[in-house]
Amino acid sequence: MAYVPGFDWDIFLSYPRETDQRDSYDLEWVSEFHRILEKELKERISDQSGPAIYFDRRNFGAADHLEDELLEAVRKSALFLAILSPRYLAPGKFTMRELDVFCEHSERRKRIIGLELLPIEDECPPTLRGLKSNKFYVMDEGRAIKLTPKWQTHRDEYYRKLQILAQDLRDLLKTMRASTGGAVEERPYCLDQEETTSKESGRRCEPHSLILVRRYCPR
């Protein structure tokens, strides 16, 4: 049961299957991200069951009934969390179909949260232009390096960014729950626009001023 009334799922996790294949650190990146994100959200939301995250690891292939099931979950999700990379945007990828289905109604576009695992500046589609995105990579001599919990050098940065994202998702879900008549035990806090750490500013904010992410995908 979703935390936000009227939905089957609170968050739909959209990603290309290649992103969850074992990498050079022997890590399934999306699976590990999902595990930590779910834990962080449960710690931030008082509801006993926590938020319902749709995370499907099946390889659909030509199974149309599975694709239909996936798209139905997209339509019934409160938030759409896209793990972006050039592979996500590749021609023929099912991820773009998921994104298009979520955006069938224009008002849903403001409920898209982008997590940029690798840069997509040159390939950013119209649907994502103007949206902010969480950047989960660092630049090393002009080369993009993915953040990972197994990379000692930037492990702290990975956890910092993930906790900021979890807090932003929590605030969004609470705002949506309140707007649909659900009980919310407290008003959300927001980070200052220029804040670069996970420390809360202590300034209360109205729902429309919640900060989701940190960087605009260029037009």
Keywords:
219 residues; alpha/beta; Rossmann fold; six-stranded mixed sheet; two-stranded antiparallel ribbon
- Estimate percent helicity: 25-40%
CATH class: Alpha Beta
Rounded to the nearest angstrom, the radius of gyration is 17 Å
CATH level-four homologous superfamily name: Toll/interleukin-1 receptor homology (TIR) domain
Query: Strand order of the main beta sheet, please?
Result: 2-1-3-4-5-8
The number of E-state strands comes to 8
Residues in β-strands, percent? 15-25%
Q: In the CATH scheme, what's the topology name?
A: Rossmann fold
Low-confidence segments: 184-219
The number of helical runs is 4
Sum up the overall morphology in one term: globular
Query: Biggest β-sheet: count, sense, barrel?
Result: 6 strands, mixed
H-E order: EHEHEHEEEEHE
